[in-house]
């Protein structure tokens, strides 16, 4: 069982109605967001779709799942089929087109595909809004994925073997290949940190609402810090994009 050395025990949400806390936080964040889109990035199973839907509802934003938009654009029922009939490269090209189209819109929460972070051009699109990395320990990801199966996730799909062990080993390989790509996000939401703050020894105790609240909190801090001088923050974003493009 995963555990994290942790000193703080806030249990901050225990006595407060989570839904109320979420609502309050979203009202504060809306003021600072000014219609900017939110892009959730993270490994497969990190909760982008689950947490993204909660955030969009509470912010009054529209929710889009970029994998679903690629399926619609290509006219196929699943990402798995697109990989099989075409190729991963074909899927990635369509994923970039979808992100480009979304980037001209406002008031969206977008759950991106787990691999969207690997193409620098996608960061140019996502940097038009705010990006949030849901950083979830690999063993928790593998547990979640083993529970629902890997059929819909072609990079993890295995015909045989223990589902947890297979998912864990494939996710570890992908995480290694992707290196720091997720860390290009404006904000990192670490489940280990939230668990630690709440006095839990396991990230599986965290609800999607806990994670949505922390995401909004981190977005608010980021926006407050970066809107003090908006011309400086535009320049900062541009230099970050240039750096990503040279990697
Ligand atoms: N906080 C959580 N605790 C436990 N299970 C969760 C949590 N968040 C999401 N899940 C479950 O984990 C699985 C993956 O979540 P979700 O589909 O939201 O991830 P994702 O990041 O969108 O994955 P993908 O990149 O493959 O689309 C789902 O079965 C979901 O119900
Ligand atoms: O991590 C990845 O590379 C992927 C994640 C999924 O969301 C899909 O976009 C696809 O299965 C590839
Ligand atoms: Mg998803």
From TrEMBL:
Gene Ontology MF annotations: ATP binding; metal ion binding; shikimate kinase activity
Pathway where it operates: Metabolic intermediate biosynthesis; chorismate biosynthesis; chorismate from D-erythrose 4-phosphate and phosphoenolpyruvate: step 5/7
Tagged with keyword Coiled coil: no
User: Which Enzyme Commission number(s) are listed?
Assistant: 2.7.1.71
Q: Name one GO biological process term.
A: amino acid biosynthetic process
The record's GO CC annotations read: chloroplast
- Report whether Cytoplasm shows up as a keyword of the record: no
Pfam families on file: SKI (PF01202)
Main localization of the protein described in the UniProt heading: plastid
CDD domains membership: SK (cd00464)
Q: Where in the cell is it found?
A: Plastid, Chloroplast
Q: Which reaction does it catalyse?
A: shikimate + ATP = 3-phosphoshikimate + ADP + H(+)
Q: Which UniProt keywords are listed?
A: Amino-acid biosynthesis, Aromatic amino acid biosynthesis, ATP-binding, Chloroplast, Kinase, Magnesium, Metal-binding, Nucleotide-binding, Plastid, Transferase, Transit peptide
Name the needed cofactors: Mg(2+)
The record's function comment reads: Catalyzes the specific phosphorylation of the 3-hydroxyl group of shikimic acid using ATP as a cosubstrate.
Q: Which family does it belong to?
A: Belongs to the shikimate kinase family.
The protein's name: shikimate kinase
Q: Which species? A: Zea mays (Maize)
């Amino acid at each position: 069982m995963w555990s994290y050395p942790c000193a703080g025990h806030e249990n901050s949400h225990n006595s407060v109605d989570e839904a109320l806390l979420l609502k309050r936080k979203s009202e504060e964040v809306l003021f600072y967001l000014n219609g900017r889109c939110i892009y959730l990035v993270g490994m497969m199973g990190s909760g982008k779709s689950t947490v993204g839907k909660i955030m969009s509802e509470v912010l009054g934003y529209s929710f889009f799942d970029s994998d679903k938009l690629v399926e619609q654009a290509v006219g196929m029922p699943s990402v798995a089929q697109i990989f099989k009939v075409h190729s991963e490269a074909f899927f990635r090209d369509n994923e970039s087109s979808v992100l480009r189209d979304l980037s001209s819109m406002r008031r969206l929460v977008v759950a991106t595909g787990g691999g969207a972070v690997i193409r620098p051009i996608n960061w140019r699109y996502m940097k038009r809004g705010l990006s949030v990395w849901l950083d979830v320990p690999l063993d928790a990801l593998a547990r979640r994925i083993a529970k629902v199966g890997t059929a819909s996730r072609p990079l993890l799909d295995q015909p045989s073997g223990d589902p947890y062990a297979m998912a864990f080993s494939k996710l570890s390989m992908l995480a290694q290949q992707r290196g720091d790509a997720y860390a290009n996000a404006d904000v990192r939401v670490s489940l280990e940190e939230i668990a630690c703050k709440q006095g839990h020894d396991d990230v599986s105790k965290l609800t999607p609402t806990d994670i949505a609240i922390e995401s909004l909190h981190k977005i608010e801090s980021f926006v407050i810090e970066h809107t003090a001088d908006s011309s400086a923050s535009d320049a900062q974003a541009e230099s970050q994009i240039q750096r990503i493009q040279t990697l």
